[in-house]
Design a protein that fits this description.
Helix content of chain A: 25-40%
Number of strands of chain B: 7
Oligomer: heterodimer
CATH topology of chain B: Rossmann fold
Distance between the termini of chain B: 44 Å
CATH architecture of chain B: 3-Layer(aba) Sandwich
Radius of gyration of chain A: 16 Å
CATH topology of chain A: Arc Repressor Mutant, subunit A
CATH class of chain B: Alpha Beta
Number of domains of chain B: 1
CATH class of chain A: Mainly Alpha
Shape of chain B: globular
Order of helices and strands of chain B: EHEEEHEHEHEH
Strand content of chain B: 25-35%
Chain lengths: 116, 205
């Protein structure tokens, strides 16, 4: 599949109620997400993709991983995840930032890689 | 590999959740020409099976590739993997096609990345020029070149590769058999070490 082309069978806006963009712009493919375990059930009207997303995200996963497991484009899952974040069913685990990784974080990553 | 539309059995995500100690994530781009070994490198490092998502390419790409014809959107597969480092950080490796027509796809991906590993094949170095041009033109990402030493490819010194690609003197060039985890990890170390040097130099300035 690498570098391959494929037509998408369902236009994304059908699944997102016509919206092309998420309600927040802080979600990146590597943003870590986790379902909020407070016993609340999704409303009856919630779509099957929202349900599948929360089910898949009972532990921490990045947005891109969710997209891969749900077999949906990352851009579409960002829209679904934003709604679930707004409604409090989903939480962001990693700090939301648009900054480049700082020296301290880079050095920690390098130390971690050297211990492999 | 878990790939949208493939016949592979579904993977249970519950077994692949990150450890509860992980509290942040960083990413590295793995770019290069088609078939150069991006997914091989990702698979050698990743602690999970290589995953794939499909992303939409829109009108900006039209007119560049005749295969796109009159379509208004096309999708392109993006392979990626993950490795937990130091117990608290998830490092994601996103493999993206490097050609100009895919720029829309990886412009967003480059945002906030540690850097880019550019995988090259010495038998067709010219395929890498466009990738390097794109990185230089559109990003300020630290770049490290990884020569994928295919078993049947002639060996060249890293200096020869540096000269052929007309690289800046401080751009690291490493070589290895990217099927081997240790060598793939060393390439990743070289990139992150380069990013540390650049970040320190930036802080000092």
């Amino acid at each position: 599949m690498t570098d391959g082309y494929r037509d998408h069978p369902v236009r994304s806006y059908v699944l997102t109620g016509g919206r092309a963009h998420p309600s927040r712009n802080t979600l990146r493919p590597e943003t870590l997400l986790c379902a909020v375990d407070d016993g609340r059930e999704l409303p009856v009207g919630a779509g099957r993709h929202e349900r599948a997303l929360l089910e898949t995200c009972r532990g921490t996963l990045a947005l891109a991983e969710l997209a891969a497991y749900l077999r949906l484009p990352t851009s579409l899952v960002a829209v679904l995840a934003s709604d679930l974040l707004d409604a409090g069913y989903l939480a962001v685990r990693s700090p939301a930032t648009h900054d480049l990784p700082g020296v301290d974080l880079l050095e920690e990553v390098l130390d971690g890689l050297r211990r492999f | 590999m878990v790939s949208a539309g493939s016949e592979a059995p579904p993977v249970d995500p519950a077994s692949l959740h990150l450890a509860s100690t992980v509290e942040r994530s960083v990413k590295v781009l793995v770019v290069g020409a088609y078939g150069v070994g991006k997914t091989t490198l990702i698979g050698a490092v990743s602690e999970i099976p290589v995953l794939s998502t499909e992303e939409t390419i829109t009108a900006a790409s039209l007119g560049v590739d005749p295969r796109l014809g009159e379509k208004t959107t096309t999708t392109v597969a993006m392979d990626f993997g993950r490795v937990t480092v130091g117990g608290t950080t998830a490092l994601y490796l996103f493999g993206t096609p490097g050609q100009k027509r895919f720029w829309d796809l990886w412009a967003g991906l480059a945002d906030g990345a540690v850097g880019a590993l550019v995988v090259v094949d010495t038998r067709r170095l010219e395929d890498s020029f466009e990738v390097l041009d794109q990185l230089e033109e559109h990003t300020a990402l630290p770049v490290t070149i990884v020569v994928n030493e295919f078993p049947d490819a002639p060996r060249h010194t890293t200096d020869a590769v540096r000269a052929a690609l007309d690289l800046p003197a401080d751009t690291p060039v490493v070589a290895g058999d990217l099927r081997e985890r240790r060598q793939a990890v060393e390439a990743l170390q070289a990139l992150v070490a380069h990013a540390v040097r650049l970040a320190r130099a930036g802080d000092a300035a």
